[in-house]
Design brief:
single chain; alpha+beta; Aminoglycoside 3'-phosphotransferase, Chain: A, domain 2; 2 domains
Length: about 450
């Protein structure tokens, strides 16, 4: 391995390969330059393994940094080859079960591997059985932003592909919730991280795998087709879980990273400025589509409605929260308990923004918007229109459970200001959805459009 100079990887071939990866989030932008920032050999082989940081620079001066796990084999590796260097095939080792098994061994051993300018540290927690020697490793899913590997159907490792300096919010929140015995998560087992001159960054986390658990989104669509009203009581239970989760996340006033805070005028000014910028971008670029007619020319109306946020007197507390909560971030375990997943926040947003304390009602708004998506997808994807009023009943059930379980001090005092703040956050979320659908799924723009119209008509 030492004789192979991975810095000699052909940048054009590497860029071409990156553009074919689902997790490479910058396909719409031209790569002005690709730089291999650092390579650390973490196993000498065979197969040889190296952790690499690769920087993609774009016109205008912006850049993203990605984690690669590079494998080297003399005989090659079918389907994930990147380049040939020094007579060896360099490939994506996350596609190689043998390489992932070696990674599991490093986690089990709590290894620390040093390079010239940095090190990769592997950590494992007591109380969770680590990957066994010879554990069967397999990739799962077709994730948009990460890569996940399952060991023996007992543990799942999520490797973050795009990395930024600082602890990933998911690692922070999982450690906090695990330490306090919150039962509705897949317990944290371990993690690995990069520490060096370039940055300190979380590379990945490992949690217990939940065999037989049902994805919340798929369960919603299945039950909307078979027994729509059966799902509604489940949502009350989910509301209770999210209310308890927020209460735990706000339970330690001695931890600066998690202590609840009062919203300041400065934080509100920053929030409203960010929302204004989002609205302006969306409505300036709004194409001439029939599905957009109900919101065409209403950007100023949306902005005025969201500006009310700065005029609400009692706003509750700001806490660490999930940041990207919807049905697809939940699972229903075999025993009937809801499990909350994927605490990294919206991956497209900067890490500092994802770690910022916000109102817990932002999570609630994200979940409520998910019910609108489920009702529409049941019709479009499965051919089973949701019964009339189903979305309203789903919303009411979830909110009943949430408001029963959450510490009320986290919310504005009284139902009216709470509902007003929630409507504002739902509108913010719907604007974000509109931009996302225009860029990725134009056929779906009717869902956020309907949400925006409804929220603009809500009494405040």
């Amino acid at each position: 391995m030492a004789a192979v100079d991975l810095a000699a990887l052909d940048e054009t071939r590497l860029a071409d390969w990156l553009l074919t990866r689902r997790w490479f989030g910058s396909k719409a932008r031209d790569i002005a330059q690709l730089n291999i920032l650092d390579v650390i050999v973490i196993h000498s082989g065979p197969p040889a393994l190296a952790a690499a940081l690769v920087e993609a620079r774009f016109p205008g001066g912006t850049h993203d940094v990605y984690q690669l796990l590079l494998g080297l084999r003399a005989e090659g590796f079918e389907g994930s080859a990147i380049d040939e260097v020094g007579g060896m095939t360099v490939y994506d080792a996350f596609a190689d079960p043998a390489a992932c098994e070696l990674l599991g061994g490093l986690l089990r051993d709590g290894a620390e591997v040093h390079g010239e300018q940095a090190r990769v540290e592997f950590h494992w927690l007591e109380g969770v059985e680590p990957p066994r020697p010879g554990a069967q490793a397999r990739p799962i899913g077709a994730e948009q932003s990460n890569t996940s590997i399952v060991f023996d159907d007992a543990l799942v490792m999520k490797a973050y592909r795009r990395v930024e300096a600082g602890d990933n919010p998911e690692l922070e929140l999982l450690r906090f919730l695990s330490d306090r015995g919150f039962p509705n998560i897949a317990p944290l087992g371990g993690w690995y991280q990069y520490e060096g001159e370039l940055m300190d960054a979380t590379f990945g986390v490992v949690q217990r795998f939940l065999p037989g658990a049902r994805d919340g989104w798929e369960l919603a669509l299945d039950e909307l087709g078979a027994d729509p009203e059966r799902f509604v009581p489940r949502l009350r239970d989910l509301g209770v879980v999210i209310g308890r989760m927020h209460t735990v996340l706000a339970s330690d006033p001695t931890d600066p990273a998690f202590a609840p805070e009062e919203p300041s005028d400065e934080s509100l000014a920053l929030l409203t400025a960010t929302i204004d910028e989002e609205i302006e971008r969306v409505w300036v670029e709004l194409p001439d589509l029939e599905a957009l007619e109900p919101v065409a020319g209403r950007g100023a109306e949306v902005r005025d409605r969201l500006q009310l946020l700065s005029h609400i007197g009692a706003r509750g507390k700001l806490i660490r929260h999930h940041g990207d909560l919807h049905l697809g971030q939940t699972m229903l375990a075999r025993g009937g308990d809801w499990i909350v997943l994927d605490f990294e926040g919206e991956p497209a947003r900067p890490l500092l923004e994802r770690r910022r304390k916000r109102s817990p009602l932002r999570d609630v708004a994200g979940m409520l918007r998910s019910f609108a998506y489920a009702a529409s997808a049941s019709d479009v994807q499965r051919g089973h229109p949701a019964p009339e009023g189903w979305e309203d009943r789903a919303r009411d059930a979830f909110l009943d459970g949430y408001l029963e379980a959450v510490d009320p001090v986290l919310l504005p005092p009284g139902e009216s200001p709470t509902r007003t703040l929630l409507t504002i956050f739902e509108l913010e979320k719907a604007v974000y959805e509109l931009r996302y659908e225009l860029n990725n799924r134009p056929d779906w723009v009717g869902i956020p459009v309907a949400g925006i119209v409804r929220l603009l008509e809500e009494p405040l």
